[in-house]
Design brief:
Layout lengths: L1 E5 L3 H13 L3 E5 L2 H10 L4 E5 L7 H10 L6 E6 L6 H7 L3 E5 L3 H15 L6 E4 L2 E4 L4 E4 L2 E3 L3 H12 L7 H9 L9 H13 L8 E4 L3 E4 L5
Parallel strand pairs: 1-2, 1-3, 3-4, 4-5
Antiparallel strand pairs: 6-7, 7-8, 8-9, 10-11
Helix pairs in contact: 2-3, 6-7, 6-8
Bound molecules: calcium ion.
Calcium ion binds next to loops.
Length: 225
């Protein structure tokens, strides 16, 4: 799950990005409205968290721009207490929820999860392949009835592989989606993570689901044979 944060206040922005990353999300941070809108237009996000008061263009205009290009991901506004009357304006523009500053991170996380759940109502909340099941809301993985503990990166990696089952995913794509970084060809971060993930979800089970496609990347599929 990928979240866009648009917040000019440095401390709040850093805190949100770090907190959401630790909670297992990929979080991008834009520090003003123009950068935020640009990211929202060029990347795919499952949710946007945006401050109302931003330099250059404010949160309302950013959201208006996002909706104008047809992006329907849920939007959570961060607003100061004295801007509450702006709620009506925000709702008209298609905001989904509000949080009044200052807020507890646990509260933000609860709202984020609710919005993501609502945003995905048409989509299943679990991803499956053979007897492997990944529960997105409970953040739980089960294979053959057995609970498997994954780190947040392993969970994100497995989620990506399951969402794009049968597709060979290049390392560069995995790097950008799971680690939010550009792929460095000298780095073996992905190989190591895939190996660890396989040890957990494939080693003691049949059929094997995750496969290396030499020179190309990785694929998760239920093979016919
Ligand atoms: Ca601000």
């Amino acid at each position: 799950m990928k979240i866009l944060i648009i917040e000019d206040e440095q401390k709040t922005g850093d805190y949100l990005k770090q907190g959401l990353s630790e909670a297992g999300f990929v979080a991008d941070l834009a520090r003003d409205g123009i950068d935020g809108l640009h990211l929202a237009m060029t990347e795919d996000y499952d949710l946007v968290i945006l401050d109302v008061m931003l330099p250059s263009i404010d949160g309302w205009q950013v959201l208006k721009g996002i909706r104008q290009i047809g992006k329907q991901m849920p939007a959570l506004f961060l607003t100061a207490r004295d801007q509450i009357e702006d709620r009506v304006k925000g709702l008209e523009l298609g905001a989904d929820d509000y949080l009044i500053k200052p807020f507890a991170f646990s509260e933000l996380l609860a709202r984020v999860r609710t919005l993501l759940k609502r945003g995905k109502t048409k989509e299943s909340e679990t991803l499956q392949a053979a007897d492997l099941e990944l529960d997105l809301l409970r953040r739980r993985v089960i294979r053959a009835g057995k609970r498997i503990d994954l780190t947040s990166k392993e969970f994100a990696l497995l989620e990506l592989l399951l969402r794009r089952q049968g597709e060979v995913l290049p390392r560069s794509l995995i790097a950008s989606q799971v680690w939010d970084m550009n792929f460095d060809s000298d780095s073996n971060v992905i190989e190591v993570a895939v190996r660890r993930l396989r040890a957990k979800v494939d080693d003691e089970f049949e059929p094997k689901l995750i496969r290396t496609v030499r020179g190309m990347g990785y694929v998760l599929e239920v093979s016919e044979t």
